[in-house]
Amino acid sequence: MRAIDDSNRMIHLATQVISELGITADSLTDLASKLKSTFLIEVPDNTEVYLKGTTLKRIQTTFAEAARSSSDFDYDAPIKVDPTIGFLCLDASDCEAIVQRGALRKKQFESVALFNSETGTTCLYPTDYAKQFLPSQERVIYITGSFQTFQRGDASIEKSIIIRFKNILISTQALRAIRQELKNKEPDYGKFQKGGWASTKLAQLNEASTLFFSQDHNSRSELSIEKKEEIKAWFRAHWGAETGVDLIEQAINAILPDRLYPKAPPKETINTPLRSEYNGYASTTLILINEAAKHFWQATQEKNHKTQDKRIEIIRVLQSSEWGFTARLATAAATIISLKTRSQ
Fold it and tell me: pLDDT over 90 for what percent of the chain?
């Protein structure tokens, strides 16, 4: 996993984060929910934010004032939020809805965020905002309330903001927590067991299969452009920016469910007992690549073959009529298997 260079940035686009960390939008949302991280959006230019609630009360500064009827201090009129507040805060459930639906309309927010070039972003709830921004003689305690958006210049017109994933931002503080969580997290391979025969790339191929297809129960016959781009970003983040385009393309083909890959070897190539050893969502292609890796790795343990000679043999076997790989897929699979001889 590559690190994002955040030395000079305090806020990041969520789209950039998932691309550079090699995770999906769903994964980002799940991590944010677990870590209780907050997402941000910028306040649109045509929008004003007001602090509004059912009951606002001024802080009683003297005993006599506190003794008077509290109704004298009821304050239900909305308070215009200071223009230095540049962001509205979203929680993980908001982002989950955006990922699932494509967009979310929202006009009520639990908190807003203040940006400081030295400390980054700070989320403020109604009481926090009142204490920091309202003069002491007008300061209020928010009993119940929220921040609401209105048409700029007319506080009588409520304005819903349409939020898409491309609009979502995340702070450096939250990013660091997410990155640490990813670092500490064990890869999820499902039933796959990483043995000495599995290279790092091959293990990651199985990890990608679990990440992107373990919950895929759709009957569609082709891979969506959006999902393909997510998988590409994941491989590029894990294998490096210098990884060839064709290797990543063929890696995607390798993990596609059989119904999504027209050139997949026939399912009959693998018998039922062997298939049962693998994840139910594992493609025939992926299972065959794993089996080839086991077979050829064992051969290198018995005899000291040159890696290049073994690579050529892998490609030849995978392209045979028995296995049925295309030349490009066989070549990529040999690279992913990355055999090492015993002496190495």
Answer: 37
Which residue has better confidence, 72 or 279?
Answer: 279
Q: Residue 98: which of 205, 193, 196, 14 has the closest Cα?
A: 14
**Residue 120: which pLDDT band, with cuts at 50, 70 and 90?**
confident
- Between CA 26 and CA 39 the distance in angstroms is 14
Domain spans in the chain, listed from the N-terminal domain onward: 11-182, 200-337
- Its pTM stands at 0.61
d(Cα 11, Cα 42) in Å, to the nearest integer? 11
What average pLDDT does range 74-92 have in this prediction?
83
pLDDT at 17 over 80: yes
314/334 Cα distance (integer angstroms): 6
Q: How many CB atoms lie within 10 A of CB 7?
A: 6
Q: How far apart are CA 162 and CA 98, in angstroms?
A: 10
Quick one: tokens of 97?
Answer: 């809805």
Question: What is the rounded CA–CA span in Å between residue 169 and residue 40?
Answer: 5
* Token output for 181: 């969580």
Amino acid letter, 209: S
Task: Judge whether 124 and 113 are in contact, CB under 8 Å.
Answer: yes
Burial 238-270 (b: 16+ CB within 10 A, else e): bbeeebeeebbbbbbbbbbbeebbeebbeeebb
Residue for token pair 């065959």: 288
Q: What is the DSSP letter of 152?
A: T
Q: What are 240-253's pLDDT values in tens digits?
A: 878 899 999 999 99
**Positive or negative torsion for Cα 183, 184, 190, 196:** positive
Mean pLDDT of the chain: 83
